[in-house]
Amino acid sequence: MSFVFPPPAIASVPVLGKNERFAVHRIYCVGRNYEEHAKEMGFTGREPPFFFLKPADAVLPVDAGATGEMPYPSLTKNLHHEIELVVAIGIGGRNISAADAARHIYGYAVGLDMTRRDLQNEMKKQGRPWSIGKGFDLSAPIGPITPLAQAGDIHRAGISLQVNGVDRQRSSVDKLIWNVAETIEHLSAAWELQPGDLIFTGTPEGVAAVERGDLLVGEVDGLTSLRIKIS
Ligand code: MN
Fold it and tell me: Rg of the Cα trace of the chain?
């Protein structure tokens, strides 16, 4: 097959302990999936999970031990951090039950759902899509994927984000409103999941703005931490 111009490079993420990389198919994100974060955004109660997407090439992959550089994006004056546990899908499927979800998971990573909050809020107010607030270039910094067998018991792991050495977000994965398995069940009812899909599972409370020069360190117990400098 030939193309009218060279096809773009495949977006990919490093895998801990392997030379092979994880090729990204899609990036799904869950909205308001921790109660205290839902409250800080002005919502209460358990609602069915809802999803939005980022382009696959919005990933900003960072190797173990490295510090990634994220350029401060255009159009915003309120760039927010959202630390998230990311699920990497290894086996696709549709209508996957929560009980069967684990066998579809390749591994886990630490990710940041970076958000142009001022633009997202304006779109919310107008009932318009969130894409400009959520799906911009390099809006998905992500550390190496830890294969499932090496990741330990992720469901009770602590999750945290420090900015310039100061705690901004600190919670536990067991506070997810919809846990990983339930999220896969809901998501796979709406889309056929494919190997290479990434699921950003939602952020706990404490989201706030970052500035140029800030150093962000995100951690989920049992996974490789993620370091990002805003430039
Ligand atoms: Mn998020």
Answer: 17
How far apart (Å, rounded) are the C-alpha atoms in residues 125 and 108?
34
113 CA distance to ligand 1 centroid (A)?
Answer: 5
**Ligand 1 centroid distance, CA of 21 (Å):** 24
219 Cα distance to chain centroid:
13
Residue 118: the pLDDT is 98
Cβ-contact 167, 160 below 8 angstroms: yes
pTM above 0.90, yes or no: yes
pLDDT value at 45 more than 90: no
CA of 6 to the centre of ligand 1 (A): 33
Distance 32 CA to ligand 1 centre (A): 7
- Tell me the CA–centroid distance for residue 149 and ligand 1, in Å: 26
Of 217, 204, 211, which Cα lies nearest the Cα of 162?
Answer: 217
Angle at the Cα of 72 from the Cα atoms of 81 and 166, rounded to 5 degrees = 40
Q: How many angstroms separate the CA atoms of 138 and 159, rounded? A: 22
